[in-house]
What does this fold into?
Amino acid sequence: MLIQKNMRLLAKFESLFQKRNASKISFIGLGQMGSKMARNLIKKGNTVKVFDVIPEARNSIEGAQPCDSLQQVVEGCDVIITMLPNGRIVKEITLGQRGVLEHLEKGAVLVDCSTIEHQCAVDVNEAVLKRGGKFLDAPVSGGITGAEAGTLTFMVGGDETTVKTVEPTLLQMGQKVYHCGQTGSGQIAKMCNNLILGVTMIGTCEAMNLARKLGLDQKKLTEIVNASTGKSWSSEIYNPVPGILPNVPSSNGYKGGFAVPLMAKDLGIADSAALACGAAVPLTAAALQIYRMMQNHGFEQKDFSSVYEFLKGKNSK
Amino acid sequence: MLIQKNMRLLAKFESLFQKRNASKISFIGLGQMGSKMARNLIKKGNTVKVFDVIPEARNSIEGAQPCDSLQQVVEGCDVIITMLPNGRIVKEITLGQRGVLEHLEKGAVLVDCSTIEHQCAVDVNEAVLKRGGKFLDAPVSGGITGAEAGTLTFMVGGDETTVKTVEPTLLQMGQKVYHCGQTGSGQIAKMCNNLILGVTMIGTCEAMNLARKLGLDQKKLTEIVNASTGKSWSSEIYNPVPGILPNVPSSNGYKGGFAVPLMAKDLGIADSAALACGAAVPLTAAALQIYRMMQNHGFEQKDFSSVYEFLKGKNSK
Amino acid sequence: MLIQKNMRLLAKFESLFQKRNASKISFIGLGQMGSKMARNLIKKGNTVKVFDVIPEARNSIEGAQPCDSLQQVVEGCDVIITMLPNGRIVKEITLGQRGVLEHLEKGAVLVDCSTIEHQCAVDVNEAVLKRGGKFLDAPVSGGITGAEAGTLTFMVGGDETTVKTVEPTLLQMGQKVYHCGQTGSGQIAKMCNNLILGVTMIGTCEAMNLARKLGLDQKKLTEIVNASTGKSWSSEIYNPVPGILPNVPSSNGYKGGFAVPLMAKDLGIADSAALACGAAVPLTAAALQIYRMMQNHGFEQKDFSSVYEFLKGKNSK
Amino acid sequence: MLIQKNMRLLAKFESLFQKRNASKISFIGLGQMGSKMARNLIKKGNTVKVFDVIPEARNSIEGAQPCDSLQQVVEGCDVIITMLPNGRIVKEITLGQRGVLEHLEKGAVLVDCSTIEHQCAVDVNEAVLKRGGKFLDAPVSGGITGAEAGTLTFMVGGDETTVKTVEPTLLQMGQKVYHCGQTGSGQIAKMCNNLILGVTMIGTCEAMNLARKLGLDQKKLTEIVNASTGKSWSSEIYNPVPGILPNVPSSNGYKGGFAVPLMAKDLGIADSAALACGAAVPLTAAALQIYRMMQNHGFEQKDFSSVYEFLKGKNSK
It folds into this structure.
């Protein structure tokens, strides 16, 4: 009885504590990722105003305050979070006519969680600073599952003080916050991580497909690779061969997960950045072309680990 | 006093026990790897006859019985271990005139630890069977350090009974023995693992070099990658950027480790095998070409993680 | 005597005819290409006002009217030709503050001969139209030699009437004018041609280097290829192996010609365009990476056919 | 009347002349190519004994003397021509039990027109020399059409005297004979030519597909490329875009021509040769992988210029 009483007290206290730390947050972009992130903010007791260009989406978040314009969603808010499909749209929403910047309060922080070109983040930051606001680029990893479970990782670029201010809010949607360096470095970190992923996954699929052709058991190969120098997140946590791991896209018809066009998008960002700064990225470029070809051959809805299936081909034994 | 006495007794007992399990072993090929493997067999109390085509090498293994011919080293031995540079030499030493096969005892086991084409292993196996012997392909991973420390991993192909018989001997030179399947599958497993490694390392180097160009701290990137989906043995255990990890080739001028031509050799084996069986291996093929170009541009003595330095280039900021 | 008289008359007549057809032309960008193109326009009797951001360059064209500002060079001119290093600079010079557009006469034609992103041409065209002017993208092929000799080829995008108007002027600097289609299509045509060139040259160099390694005479190979299915401009007119053709860069230490960074620039434009429209360009992407690596390994001043030397390597037999 | 008489006389004379130059020829391998080549030899008046492992094929050549064994076809012949699918089969037919060599007359010439590894040609040559015969490697270009029309090109490796002896016979099946150098160099020449072709075709297809995506007319692009630096046999004679040239596979549903698996075979030979001699062939390797992927995606029956269609993809606009 006493324990139960204390538990109830504790729960109340926790709720109060959350409220005290909760802030008025504006959330723009309620797609697959954004809607789940916004819901987590509401669950943690924050007051959350939401906006999306699609009117129906605005009313889809229970407990949120739906807004009909960027003006309405931005005004009076300290923290504005954006989660949008690409850099062009981020620029349009923030810097465009009747965009976020026109209504931004002095000292408010704009946190962009979209995955975009780092140069684009640098451009938006400059405009936000001129307006008297602050900007962080904060792309995430963890996918839809992580967005739902509130276990995202944030890779953040911007000045340290601003990062510290916003960190508690980010941790209500995720588990880890990496401060990578100045503006844009969050995007650079994400794109560098994802290019390794995109390349490593194809390498792993090539090995698994070669093993299949030569009659080596793929479970055995996975066991050996995971204890050897070929081990990676792709072989250990996200194995591309159906039936080796449960609960991964490969064991579920390559449904869900991180779709081929999204991987192609991220590699395209890395490829362009490399082009602009003169860095050679031979395997990144080759990997991008493979995901590109997959998009044109019926894999545009599948998880990127379906490279395995693409290599196998239709008429392959 | 009593403890010391017991310790001495224990040591004696251990030595006796090792002798009892020790066998008469023949070791052929006393290069960088073979010499260290043979020494570990001697340390564990085995009687080891040794041979190498280079006469001086024959006398370089303390405690071994140097032999002057293949006949001498093979005759009367139950287990013959070969550790040779490539498939052509393995065939020459085993199937050639006055080769191992001509002197092989009925029932003796030939264990080839060289890294060679799996088809080559299949060919040698066939000949050994005809002669009344047994064959295992048992390539290793772990490199020179693992050979010296006796911590190698063996990937073994062949029939289960033979594997079981030889396993204790292999474990005197290593820590793990994987039985991969029928003859040749040890080679297939190794080549599949190494192609992932060769590809993943280049992907990791591309990310690290891109980060450098764009001003992202490489230690920070490594920290993020190792907690994310880009994590691999290459980023975590063998990071290619100087100064991130101690005791890896990159922090030691890319000296030691696994030299570029050896990686090119292994990827060449994988590429040929893929060619022969009709498997598409786009990134393996691209990676092979990069290591090949490195060989022609002054990296032939360096560890394969020097891809990082190759991408950086000479006139790069 | 009579013939000589008639010849003189003819020359006079020709000169008069040229004058009548000559127009007041403005030329902006007096680098390696632009300076030679401007000189040809002067030779043909046109009145040419010239401008370059580098003051010394403005006075380097004999017979031209040097201008000190974009305003001065543009005002009162019917045809403004630009020949600039890249798309960013084209936008700056045309659309920037105190740029070409601010001073453009109604109905004047802006002809951009620079090699830039086709999207950039589309953007500039739109702005020029708004201002009441006309725009053509007209990148050239033929290089410095062609610019000097007046034998350039122009690939032109824009409306037919405008092309017809400007064609005589272009033919004073070149030999051929291709009207490719609407605005931007000149750039698309050039980039498509050059990506074939960049890829084909590397393929040709790989064959020539392989032949060298295997002891096949390269002149013999060239003879066979040029009579077979491997024939291309790269093998026939611009052979990359020293000593096969006279008067090509390969026979002159890879000096002159089309430098590696220029080829890398053009392939980069093609790669970006492909990225943006979702076209797979696997060999273009791979070729770009090779020229990129060459830039980092001491080939940044050499003609792009030096791929042959890059493949050969330093320590190659 | 007189003219007709003379024509008849001339025809008779020509026929007599051919007979005098005709020899007893043995032809082994009566597939798509071989059957047509043998028929041309018969048309020119030679006595031709023929053999194929498939009994029906032996009787399919009108005017030939069908043989039931290698012994029968080889015995008493001065010139033995082989046209076989690959190097393994060439070795089997020539060096195997009851093979060509066992029955070869002293001084007879074995001319292998198959496309095989140059090392394989070197091996067979050695065996033939030991037996007292002579060997030429003489792969052809021109395809099935050229075989039928008697317009093949022969690339020949071997000693000059032997080449001179056999040249008239080869010219009865083709139009050109290139003496490339010592044994194997015919194969090297062919493989070098075909690797350029395989690479150039893909580059051309990438440009054509990119043009399509960006709305540039492909006929216009072809016209420009063929007058510029991107010109090649692939763009001019064998354009991969349907409807640009008549009578090429692309305008006939990619039927006929040189099938994808044959191109993959030739590039595989080049890739292996490069591997063995340490030459870097980055685009050859990448091209091989593309043709390989095509084989696994439903293009195994199509002409290799269908790369265009593969790049386009199924769900491409």
In short: The interface with chain B takes residues 268, 271-272, 275, 278-282, 285-286, 288-290, 292-293, 295-296 of chain D (CB under 8 Å). Chain D has a mean pLDDT of 93. Residues 189-312 of chain D form a domain with the N-(1-d-carboxylethyl)-l-norvaline Dehydrogenase; domain 2 fold (CATH 1.10.1040.10).
